[in-house]
Specification:
By secondary structure, the chain is an alpha/beta fold. Helices cover 47% and strands 18% of the residues. α12 links the parallel β6 and β7. The mean pLDDT is 95. The protein binds S-adenosylmethionine. S-adenosylmethionine binds next to α8.
């Protein structure tokens, strides 16, 4: 079998339950379909059918029978869909479902070369930017350690000024900050509003700079500029220009660190390129030779590309000469 049907159905029924409010209506309690329907403003018959399907996928437990049958989130369901913590998948499931909507439009992209114009709703913006923060902690920590190691070569105690460009809710910026860097987060203004809420009291520890990095970067100069998963959003001309802009915003000896799926080195790169096909005008995944060209042309030296141990993508490093 090429495709496991059950996984697709599981994703769609879980995200329907999240989007329509069934999961939050269950919360911590045991409830009948009628009670869930009242709280979520959903149809009772449809609610019962979906709750039974959620039992089938292990997200919900049920007890009793007939009119007295009640449902509550299982321990797994609470851990994956409700409770904050490293196992929470809520936003990434919603993001996967939003992606699936785009993938269903691929025949249009194939015909016309670009996706239909779509506006991101406030809900999908939230789940998109928060999905980034739901990545595996060990993968994020590895990136932070490797970026700091490259940037501090020859000066291990240096307190670094770091710009996280396209840093979403600041999940990486916060980690860099916790490892001693003075971190500035730059992203689009509407994303920084989400970041402010996501960071809570930690927001005061970060600098926030609304930006469109294809137009301008904060002036710096910074010791490190980190760009995680942003080169796949844009085409070669924009990436070349962003790389030059990064060079200009670094001090002498400063480092660029790009995290992305490098074609030819990441097993996930070809499928990820399809995702960019449905989501962007000209994004994609790029080969090592392409990254080397962008960095070299911008003036960077000591260019290195490494495979990460905890995720199927790469880090690309370069240094502005002293
Ligand atoms: C795929 S997410 C990556 C988030 C984070 N860097 C990571 O690796 O987890 C891309 C982020 O880049 C931001 N972004 C994309 N284009 C941008 C631009 N031109 N200016 C500022 N931010 C941008 C998006 O808003 C989003 O938060």
């Amino acid at each position: 079998m090429l495709v496991e049907r059950k996984e697709i159905e599981k994703l769609l029924v879980l995200t329907a339950a999240l989007e329509s409010g069934l999961i939050d209506a269950l919360g911590e309690s045991a409830r009948t379909p009628a009670e869930v329907g009242r709280l979520a403003s959903t149809d009772e018959r449809a609610t019962r059918i979906v709750l039974d399907a959620l039992v089938d996928v292990g997200a919900v437990d049920s007890a009793g029978e007939g009119g007295r049958q009640s449902y509550r989130l299982s321990a797994e369901g609470r851990r994956r869909l409700l409770d904050p913590g490293p196992d929470l998948e809520r936003n990434s499931l919603l993001h996967q479902a939003n992606k699936a909507r785009g993938w269903l439009e691929l025949p249009h992209v194939l015909k016309h070369g670009a996706p239909k114009e779509r506006r991101r709703s406030a809900g999908s913006l939230k789940s998109f930017v928060r999905t980034m923060a739901e990545g595996a902690p060990e993968a994020m920590d590895e990136v932070v350690e490797r970026v700091l190691a490259y940037s501090r070569e020859g000066n291990p105690q240096k307190r670094l000024t770091l710009l996280d460009a396209g840093g979403a809710v600041g999940h990486m910026a916060r980690r860099f900050r916790e490892r001693g860097a003075e971190a500035t987060l730059c992203d689009r203004p509407e994303v920084l509003e989400e970041a402010w809420e996501y960071q809570g009291e930690g927001a005061a520890q970060l600098n926030f700079h609304p930006c469109d990095f294809t137009e301008e970067l904060p002036p710096g100069p910074f010791d490190v500029i980190y760009l995680g998963n942003v080169y796949h959003i844009y085409g070669p001309a924009t990436n070349a220009e962003v790389t030059r802009r990064v060079f200009d915003s670094l001090g002498p000896g400063g480092s660029i660190a790009v995290r992305d799926f490098v074609l030819g080195r990441s097993g996930r790169a070809p499928m990820f390129a399809v995702n960019m096909l449905q989501a962007t005008e000209e994004g994609g995944v790029w080969r090592e030779s392409q990254y080397r060209e962008w960095l070299t042309e911008a003036g960077f030296e000591d260019i290195r590309i490494i495979d990460l141990d905890h995720s199927d993508n790469q880090l690309v490093f370069g240094r502005r000469p002293h």
